[in-house]
Amino acid sequence: MSTTDQSEQAPAALSASGKPLTKRGETTRRKLLEAAEDVFARLGYHEASIVKITESAGIGLGTFYLYFDSKQQVFEELVLDLNRRVRHAMSEAMAGTSGRIEAERAGFEGFFRFTAEHPALYRVVREAEFVSPEMLRLHYTRIVDGYEAGLRAAQHDGDVDDALDPEVTAWALMGAGELIGMRFLLWERDDAGNAPAAMPEGTIDHLMRFIQGGLAVRGATGASPRESPRSEGEADA
Amino acid sequence: MSTTDQSEQAPAALSASGKPLTKRGETTRRKLLEAAEDVFARLGYHEASIVKITESAGIGLGTFYLYFDSKQQVFEELVLDLNRRVRHAMSEAMAGTSGRIEAERAGFEGFFRFTAEHPALYRVVREAEFVSPEMLRLHYTRIVDGYEAGLRAAQHDGDVDDALDPEVTAWALMGAGELIGMRFLLWERDDAGNAPAAMPEGTIDHLMRFIQGGLAVRGATGASPRESPRSEGEADA
Amino acid sequence: MSTTDQSEQAPAALSASGKPLTKRGETTRRKLLEAAEDVFARLGYHEASIVKITESAGIGLGTFYLYFDSKQQVFEELVLDLNRRVRHAMSEAMAGTSGRIEAERAGFEGFFRFTAEHPALYRVVREAEFVSPEMLRLHYTRIVDGYEAGLRAAQHDGDVDDALDPEVTAWALMGAGELIGMRFLLWERDDAGNAPAAMPEGTIDHLMRFIQGGLAVRGATGASPRESPRSEGEADA
Amino acid sequence: MSTTDQSEQAPAALSASGKPLTKRGETTRRKLLEAAEDVFARLGYHEASIVKITESAGIGLGTFYLYFDSKQQVFEELVLDLNRRVRHAMSEAMAGTSGRIEAERAGFEGFFRFTAEHPALYRVVREAEFVSPEMLRLHYTRIVDGYEAGLRAAQHDGDVDDALDPEVTAWALMGAGELIGMRFLLWERDDAGNAPAAMPEGTIDHLMRFIQGGLAVRGATGASPRESPRSEGEADA
DNA sequence: AATGAATGAGAATTCATTCAT
DNA sequence: GATGAATGAATTCTCATTCAT
Predict the structure, then answer these.
(1) A 43-102 → B contacts, CB under 8 A
(2) Does C156 touch chain D (CB under 8 A)?
(3) Are residues B31 and B82 in the same domain?
(4) A225 within a domain of the structure (yes/no)
(5) Which residues contact A157 (CB under 8 A, 6 or more apart)?
(6) What is the CATH number of the domain that holds C95?
(7) Which nucleotides on chain F have any atom < 7 A from a protein Cβ?
């Protein structure tokens, strides 16, 4: 993983009517957002309902509309919030590492830890594709941007194969991480629906061996990226 | 990619009441399934409605229930159908290749081509996570199983690094392919919503360079999978 | 009970289009009517459906409309049929009795026996009130007419109190019989839904004691029908 | 009739979600229940629909579901409500009478008056048999329980024949009253569908003459309950 | 005579959002 | 700021009936 530190702050929240919030309002809004995270994660966007969110927040139904314009809007805020938090978790994890591979590993670990602790991440973010596609793009893009910057820097340092395209590689890495997290964390929930605290022993090692090879500077014998010189153009029927 | 040939047949379809279909029934059912593919892909599961599907199929509303029990069921059938077809496309593409890398490349090419031609694949399959999680698992698992078998065989042939875990690697490969397809095919639609016929020139080359390195048998100098001996266990807070 | 013998024949059945039936048609029609009796009794009018009836009859759906015009019509035929049969059962039971009370008792016994053997009687007839009110009236009226005639004859013979109004009394008798049958036969079904073969020992004796008193010619001390001379007219608010 | 005073209160009504109602809610709920009584009585359960009920109540469709879970539930509440009210009407009518026969007559009068004023009673209660059989049992049983208690007391006072079984007799009395009400009140509606204010002159007198004989303590000449000593056991085929 | 695919009107029910208190 | 009663558009699903085979 390749996220550089992006210590963002959530922007100061406003009420639905656009006015800044009092401290009491701030608290209510926060309670709603937390309830939304829980409800959306448990039920998904369509099963979730405003009543369930407000009930779970211990707040009157009408109050919701003092802070959010619509169901969709609270969902979008939540995606932004989770995106901010997962990137923060990754940055934290990577801080103080040395060397690209070590950093990547730390980034993945941070990501998986966050996933284990906040199952809402997958549930909400992946559903964003069907609720608010722009938010999904934003989410992926922001993470990939970090990766990409990290890869470029590492190429510059001679830590990563210069011939790799940083953008394509960054998306590949993120995709790998996403499915591994899904498969080995979220699908391993116990009957009560709780994800395990961590992946099965060794999973990250296995993943890293593959990634390390992929990123490694090719030796003197430096194999060309592909054996046969077919381009994907030819492959299209 | 690593799918072995799985020339499956769709099981003989039954009416909703469980009886085998007449030829006329067969046609109607097929029309409905095609309409469903289109509508689900365009609108997503929740915006889609039975009326929209039957209208699009040019068929009476009630007729739908002669062939499917519910909206959810037709959706599930569609996932199965797409899964069957994409795996078939991949197998076809890989047939006749020699060497693991060449096969992987061909598999990805088949996958991306299918994606470009059937945008429903992503739209429907990814939404399955929220509509019918078991179907999502089935879909991914069936594809991964093929990958995994291919990797094992290649390890046996000395084509792929023996130290790699085939299962973890297979999931990583599929994840990489999925996000690359999403980013460089689906997100590149023109204003009319049509996906390009193929990815930007070179994308697959870039992806393959990364993958080739990841799978390659490590040379004499063979770097260990990770530089520092931390396990993911330690990483857990 | 007071039914005189009315050995009616069901009128020769016609197809829905009004033509007389062939022998094969006759059989099919009879199968449908029997299936309808079973299905209506088990499910009630609204839960019942033409498909269920035809399936239960082992006959194609469309065939139904060769013999009946509508769901409602088959229901009405069924009411007529049951009415004919229950009156026949009562007549049979009463044949050969001597004396009014003995005849009444035999009539009730016949009625209860028929009820135990054909739970459809209650289920279908009572529901007729909401499906085809005219049929309900027909059913009750035909039975009451028999009662009434019997009572009049018995009054003439000096067997029954002359001061009783035969019509009112006949309705009262039928009402009593109906609720007793409902309470002590139909409500006593076992868990499998089977009515017992007969009422609890003594029930008919108890009922008959009450009825005997009600019909009996008042002795010399002959109490007047009511103690205080209020008419129901006064009672209306 | 034999109902003892049962001055029940309707239990405090709750919203569909189980919360107690505000005063405004109370009003709305009452409006809905009244509309339901009218609509169910006019159209029967299956022709009735939630829209018709809410329109008749002058209330938005969705509002219905704030107070009732389903069409079936509002129907059941209505049965309970009518049951409470008819028993109340009967108790009121019987209050202050002296002697069993006088009480019976007053009870019947109260019952018939209620029937004339609330045709919903028959329509709804009798249809309950097909909508919610438990409610039907509850309804009849509650009324019969009152009768039975009255009869026992009267037997104790020497007012009613000791040899009668109070339970069987109570069911017989209720059945008689039910059919008499149906025949001479409900079937006598004019063309506009309005039931007459009371039964034809003399009907209650006729009915009471029969009942009085049935309940009367048998004189010295006390006829045995039946002439011939056959039990209903023998009657079973 | 028999069949069963096709139809669409109609019903119950949900829920985001508004607004008077 | 907070509340929750009211609303109605929209959706899924059922089933009596028709009709071409």
Answers:
(1) 44-46, 93, 99, 101-102
(2) no
(3) no
(4) no
(5) A100
(6) 1.10.357.10
(7) 1-20
End position of a domain, from candidates A68, A103, A123: A68
Q: Count the domains in chain A.
A: 2
Pair (D126, D29) in one structural domain: no
Average pLDDT over residues D201-220: 92
Model confidence at D166: pLDDT above 50: yes
pLDDT cut 70: percent of chain B above it: 87
- Together in a domain, D54 and D87: no
Tell me if A144 sits within 8 A of A95, measured CB to CB.
no
Contact of A122 with A115, CB cutoff 8 Å: yes
User: Looking at the complex, does the CB of residue B229 fall below 8 Å from at least one CB of chain A?
Assistant: no
Does the structure show a pLDDT above 90 at D203? yes
CATH code of the domain containing C62: 1.10.10.60
Tens digit of pLDDT per residue, chain A (237 long)?
Answer: 554 444 567 777 777 777 777 888 889 999 999 999 999 999 999 999 999 999 999 999 999 999 999 999 999 999 999 999 999 999 999 999 988 899 999 999 999 999 999 999 999 999 999 999 999 999 999 999 999 999 999 999 999 999 999 999 999 999 999 999 999 999 987 777 676 778 999 999 999 999 999 999 987 444 444 444 444 444 433
- Contact indicator for A177, B175 with CB cutoff of 8 Å: yes
Residues B52 and B76 in one domain: no
Residues present in chain A in total: 237
Residue B6 lies in a domain: no
How many other CB atoms are there within 10 angstroms of residue C197's CB atom?
12
Q: How many helices (H) and strands (E) would you count in chain C?
A: 10, 0
Statement to judge: residues C136 and C64 lie in one domain: no
Rounded distance between C-alpha atoms, residue A208 and residue B226, angstroms: 7
Size of chain C, expressed as the number of residues it contains = 237
Residue B93 to residue A235: CA distance in whole angstroms: 9
3-state secondary structure of D65: helix
Residues B123, B150, B202, A145: is their CA dihedral positive or negative? positive
Write the residue in D116, D177, D209 that is nearest to C163 by C-beta: D209
In this structure, which long-range contacts are made by residues A99-102, counting pairs with CB atoms below 8 Å and at least 24 apart in sequence? Answer: A99/A159, A99/B227, A100/A2, A100/A150, A100/A151, A100/A154, A100/A157, A100/A159, A100/A160, A100/A215, A101/A159, A101/A208, A101/A211, A101/A212, A101/A215, A101/B226, A101/B227, A102/B226, A102/B227, A102/B228
On whether residue A236 sits in a domain, the answer given is no
Confidence of residue D193 (pLDDT cuts 50, 70, 90): low
Residues D195, D141 within the same domain? yes
Amino acid at B49: S
CB atoms inside a 10 Å sphere around CB A61: 12
The pLDDT tens digits of the residues spanning C3-39 come to 444 456 777 777 777 777 788 888 999 999 999 999 9
Cβ atoms within 10 A of the Cβ of A128, count?
A: 24
pLDDT in tens, D218-234: 874 444 444 444 444 44
B111 in the same domain as B139: yes
Kindly state the helix (H) or strand (E) to which residue B115 belongs, with its residue range: helix B100-117
Q: Give me the B residues in range 4-43 that sit within 7 A (CB) of strand E.
A: 15, 19, 21-22, 24-25, 27-28
**D76 and D127, same domain (yes or no):** yes
What local confidence, expressed as pLDDT, does residue A223 receive? 45
Domain that holds residue D159: 70-217
Residue A11 lies in a domain: no
pLDDT for residue A67? 95
Distances from the Cα of B89 to the Cαs of B4, B117, B137, C39, D177, in angstroms?
11, 11, 20, 51, 78
Half-sphere exposure of C106 (CA within 13 A, CB side): 22
Counting one residue from C and one from D, how many pairs have CB atoms under 8 Å apart? 211
